[in-house]
Design a protein that fits this description.
mainly alpha; 2 domains; 7 helices; rod-shaped
């Protein structure tokens, strides 16, 4: 019995040590694969050619810079319009137009700025206040959409540069075939690889920037809807105040 127990114990320890060793090997292989992926990605980027790949990378960097700047600006421009509307109404009832203007002056965001412009012209009549709100609303929309066209430009340029690199690579491959006189896979494999790499990185850049672009457009549309609803509410509030 003792011999059987000893045998089983030794066998169990052997199996356990084998499993631990296999797990360590698997972790090591996974680490090498992760490191190898980064290295391969770097090598593939270099093989794509400094001319086109550098420009594609520049498009990605500039596009991300514009996207991050717009996202920060739009997040800072987002306000609780319902609370602002209630505060302005309360200020008008308690302290009049000047108190409401002071509240809007101390509140950030395009909606508060539009409210201030409307309240500033309310002494000239409701129609003058409405015109001021509409005019300044257009100014605020322009500020929200500032530099977004550059982001769409980078989205369009990146894959076009990749396709251009593909065309140039294929032209070079056919030139080698014409010069040598026979079709050899090893002869044109390098040029075709470069051609495909430029297309891949161009498409990756466009996809990344497109995601940010769609988010920014959705954010702008949301803020503009709040601006329009708040403008209508302000005019109604001024009409009721005049009565």
């Amino acid at each position: 019995m003792k011999r059987l127990f000893s045998t089983l114990t030794v066998s169990g320890l052997f199996v356990l040590s084998t499993n631990v060793a296999n797990a360590a090997v698997m972790l090591q292989e996974n680490g090498e694969q992760a490191k190898g992926f980064t290295q391969v990605l770097k090598e593939q980027f270099i093989q794509g050619g400094a001319a086109f790949m550098g420009i594609v990378l520049l498009c990605l960097i500039l596009g991300l810079a514009v996207a991050i700047e717009r996202i920060i600006f739009l997040n800072l421009s987002t306000t609780n319009t319902a609370k602002l509307r209630d505060d302005v109404e309360e200020a008008l009832k308690s302290g009049g137009v000047e108190a409401a203007k002071e509240l809007c002056r101390n509140t950030k965001g395009p909606v508060a700025s539009i409210y201030y412009q409307g309240l500033d012209r309310v002494n000239e009549g409701v129609e003058a206040a409405e015109k001021a709100v509409v005019a300044y609303g257009g100014v605020q929309m322009g500020q929200l959409e500032k530099n977004v066209s550059w982001l769409s430009l980078f989205i369009a340029i990146a894959p076009m540069l990749g396709f251009m690199g593909t065309v140039i690579g294929m032209i070079q491959a056919f030139q080698k075939i014409a010069a040598v006189g026979n079709l050899s896979a090893s002869l044109i494999a390098g040029d075709i690889q470069v051609a495909l790499l430029t297309t891949v990185f161009g498409l990756i850049t466009a996809i990344i920037l497109q995601i940010f672009y769609n988010y920014i457009i959705a954010k702008i549309d949301s803020i503009i809807n709040d601006m329009e609803d708040s403008s209508i509410a302000l005019i109604d509030l001024l009409v009721d105040t005049k009565k």
